[in-house]
């Protein structure tokens, strides 16, 4: 590029995305004179989903701002908790985040999930159509313009991923109210209604059941309940709410 030179700095939280020489503070950058600041930031590796504010000479500007020579640009990270206005807070997760999707559903958070790789274009279109926050570790997906909203998932570990999403968006928690398989809403089920679908040991041992109103899956507090209950209680202790 051979255009105006600006000086740009990134919040420490964005250091993951930018080249190492730009992680230490203010650095010079020659722009092409026509690209928007949003395009410039993304060209340096930072998805705009992770940008909380863009400041030029100390004043906020939109991503559509075209940088001029000599400007001092500061790229800040998103504030936490992050507000997502315009629709009820709900999420869409890509094929690589199945465990996170099930844990969000366990906590009663609306989390759609694609178990097959349907492609970035289809995911972005679904995000826009259903007004869901796209959660992904794919930076290319998060740069798609048709996304309604998005967020980068920073960790590979499901427990850290869950903590990150809960801290960033502070969704209302309602444990044990969603189907972990399909995201449908659970309702109480009478034992006699589901008796024929239970194995003999389950019929003999358990009396409290729930049923998914979408896929008709039946739930009870079985062998894995203690592990799931630990996930629920940890989330409630750290992020509020009351056990169901």
TrEMBL record:
Residues 90-231 form the Mut7-C RNAse domain. Pfam families: Mut7-C, Ub-Mut7C. InterPro entries: Mut7-C_RNAse_dom, Ub_Mut7C. Signal peptide: none annotated. It comes from the Bacteria. Residues 4-82 form the Ubiquitin Mut7-C domain. PANTHER family: MUT7-C DOMAIN-CONTAINING PROTEIN, MUT7-C RNASE DOMAIN-CONTAINING PROTEIN. This is Mut7-C ubiquitin/RNAse domain-containing protein.
